[in-house]
Amino acid sequence: MNDTAERTGPLAGVKVLDFSRILSGPYASMVLADLGAEVIKVEPIEKGDETRGFPPFQGKLSHYFIALNRGKQSIALNLKSPEGVEIAKDLARQSDIVLENFRPGVMSRLGLGYETLRKDNARLIYCTITGFGQESPLGDKPAFDIVAQALSGVMSVNCEPGQAPNKLGIPLGDIAGSIFSLFGLLAALHERNATGKGRHVEVAMLDSLIALQGYLSQIYFVTGQSPQPVGSQHPSIVPYGSFPTSDGHVIVACLTESFWHNFARCLGHADLIEDPRFAAYEQRLANRDALQVIIQDRMTCDTTDYWLDRLSAFDVPNAPILSIGEALEQPHVRDRGLIETAEHPTEGSMRLVRGPIRFDGEGPSAARAPRLLGEDTSDVLKNNLGLREEEIEKLVARGVVLDKD
């Protein structure tokens, strides 16, 4: 059922034509949908977005697809056929934003590149997310999250000293590209309100990860040395990280001198505050190993729960290390309303993580469940392009569109 009229939020009325798949593009278009935009997801008629096949499943819907595609409509379209390309062009003429994350040149070869689409829609904002960008010597290299993480340098510091490098537990390479594309899209929308002209927004995943390195890059620029892995510790702030207890681990984060003083008193070692080895940032960094031994000897005498209570009593930033399930079920998530339930007509109820942005204290409007492949094809063609039922049936028969999976 087409329910675009129910969309609310700051982007209500903005139309997005989304050719992207897997993660870097779909995450961005999902956020746009959360903010009220009408998003039409264009998928290949054969199998749709590749993530539809990634187990585990709820009914016919993949967990991966569910996580990245709430709030969108699905039209299954054969872009290898001239008729399919013309339908895509017709939809692009009505759109405010086109989003794609193919390798450089693919959309142009399909006849759906920026220069082509802007001729019929000068207000169009066209966003391209790639692994490396068109000017990169790596431009034609296939790019996935772990590839971007490896090339960004972030994997080299994501491990304990002397251990093999690890990728981050979340797909930050993909998500970084998504987040920066959203910055660009929203800026371009703001500019278009003044000029009436669209833009071509381009974001590369590797560029985005490098932009997120922050002080790690600056350590290299200042010292000429690449930061070395310190596990959960901080490269320049001590003490900061995971510390063992008698039955687990606790996070302690003494980013400021006052928190360090609170922590020393919490440990029963107020004398460490004036100890010349630990009195200031540079001394603690130089004597990290010695301080670690003192902290561990004390903290392993008591349980995690004991330390969580005591650290909070002394106003030391702290946290338990939760599993994904524990994190999703914690009171914070419940009280902030970060999980909601959406109903799909055939696949049943599904729990979804809600978008985090609030306006005037209110979060996004209620999510629509992710769609089956081609579930909205008829509605999109009827409501957006004015096609009649018999015309749609002919397109289905010719393999131009898929009406429903």
TrEMBL record:
Q: What is this protein called?
A: CoA:oxalate CoA-transferase
A Pfam family assignment: CoA_transf_3
Under the heading PANTHER family, the entry gives: SUCCINATE--HYDROXYMETHYLGLUTARATE COA-TRANSFERASE
**Which keywords fit this entry according to its UniProt record?**
Transferase
| Lineage start | Bacteria, Pseudomonadati, Pseudomonadota, Alphaproteobacteria, Rhodobacterales
Q: What GO molecular function terms would the record report?
A: CoA-transferase activity
Gene3D superfamilies, per the entry: Crotonobetainyl-coa:carnitine coa-transferase, domain 1 (3.40.50.10540), formyl-coa transferase, domain 3 (3.30.1540.10)
